[in-house]
Structure formats: C-alpha cells, structure tokens
Amino acid sequence: MIRLIAIVVAALPLSAPAQEHLNDRQLLGMRLFNQSCRVCHAKPQPTSVQYGPTLSRTSAGGNDDAMRVFISNGTAKMPGFRYHFKPAEIDAIVAYLKTIPSPD
Question: How remote is the C-alpha of 6 from its chain's centroid?
Fold first, then answer.
C-alpha cells in the first residue's frame, strides 16, 4: 500500500496549480495540455527523460502571443498544433500555462 501511494505521489506534477482554483477556460487548457503536450513537456516519472522544456507562465518570455505562435506553428523540434486545436483551445492552453509557476 505504501508503495502504491509513493507511485501516485511521484506521478503528480510538482508545479501544477490546484484544479479547484482554475476557471473553466484554464481547466480546458489543462485537459488539452495533458492530452497533447504533457508527453514531451513533463516527466511521467522522476527517472524518465523529458523531451521538451518545462512550460510555465514565463515560457516564451511570458508573452501570450508568442506562446500562441509556438503552439500553433511549432518549431524545428515540435509539431505545430494549428490544425489539431481551434484558436480558442490554443488560448485555453495559454491560459492554463499562465497558472503554472516558473520552475526554479
């Protein structure tokens, strides 16, 4: 039982905001992030490899428009999501990212 609890606790993101403090738009962004972004931008386990940078409110210099461009168009190492997500969904992801504290 202790081992199961330790596994569950280890899987929880350390810097994610509490869900009860998120508005509906931010919750949608969190769900979309978890479905499509988390696989590269978070470690599934402490010993796992993380492929993309940790994202937070300070990503892309904290600029919302720059975040939208990165998510929409992608980069050389990241696919763009402009055909996968509607503009309002990309806005929701940005709103969610703005709730995540900057990693130290």
Answer: 23
